[in-house]
Amino acid sequence: MRLPELLRTSALRLALWQALLFLFTAAVLAGIVGWQVHVFGRDQLRAAVRADTQRLLDELEEPDGERPEALIATRLRAIPTTHDLLALLSHDGRMLIGNLPPGVDLRGVAAGWHSVNMPPSYDADDSSAEIWLQRLPDGRMLVVGRNRSSLVQLDETLAGAFLIASIVTLLLALVGGLLLGRSYLRRVRMVGESARRIMAGDLAARVPARSIGGDEFDLLARQLNVMLARIQELMEGMRQVSNDIAHDLRTPLTHLRQRLETAAQDGAADALRAALDSAQRDVDQVLATFAAMLAIARIEARERRAGFERVDLSRLLGALAEDYAPVAEERGQRLAARIAPDVYVQADHRLLLQLFANLIENAMTHCPEHTEITLGLAREGTRGFRAMVADRGPGIPQAERTAVFKRFYRLDRSRATSGSGLGLALVQAIAELHGFSMMIEDNNPGTRMLLRGVVVIEVTA
Fold this sequence. Notes:
The chain is α+β, with helices and mostly antiparallel strands and 461 residues long.
């Protein structure tokens, strides 16, 4: 991986922004801590100065104590460096004795604490000092002080430590950002490689990801893989549908062309009329197939979900049972209804009507005479329902119970009957639109088409 690519990664920018935020926070914290430490050091320095002042006052108050000039002279000889300041001032502020630099003028200064600046020639580590002025009983002023070199050294130590920590933090952030950016680029390139394989026609390509756990890239990769699997399923379904359309429409169109060609060669009026009637039936079959496909496409596109309303499923199934019972009797079959009352669902009334009508007609078409067909509805728990269309016919083999919901799929024994193989595909599309689950079970013998709903709206009195 090239360095310019790494420098442009969001991971590096994020690491640097976090480092700058940390440094800003650390700077504020260091400023507060540094100020507190500085104040503490100054207080310690002043405490030492006050202690020296008190010892001098105690010696001056002794009965046989030295005079202030002599005591200060003795102390000046004992001071090893210029860090300690000691002086005696006259009433008007002139220095009588002491080691104050000539440039320090304390005339007119009141008693108490003062910070004074030392002249450039002062031999010390710092050019400022903390001094305490103590008024003596005779009116003169005692000056005791220390320069602030220890405070300056402490401040410089803290500033140097913060500077070193800042440099180390930025370097670590830069190295960490580069490593993290390298990892991010590798993962992004894996996704890009999978995308290129898919664009090249390999719809089975997937983004590498850990199946359990992992980081946000693994979570994203798993979600992308689910989406890619769905896209692959849709594309394969589209190919299959295209093949099925070409296969299923070729037969009626071929028959149509043969009949018209035969009628044209015959030339008789009766033959032409019969050919036109057959052609009309073939065209109707083709139009019905396209209408069913269009209905499935619209349902899968969720175009009708906005028209949902509260539907009395019990009343809807009861009306269907009344309408289809005479039709079943004419076919030598029997339609029985076992419908629980007051079951309401949020749905599209017309689509639900079409769903159950397709299931009933499918059972009637594929069951022989003297077969009983049952239309049932029952509650399941407090928030669910269970609807079924069961028959005692030949049944559907276990291996084909999933395939029958595919478009144009027909069982071998059903190819002699009319139909396009889209009825159960339409049922499945309507069920998925409503959030219902559709499954096929054994009825021992026969088939049970079972529909379960997860949302039931109860009616309260």
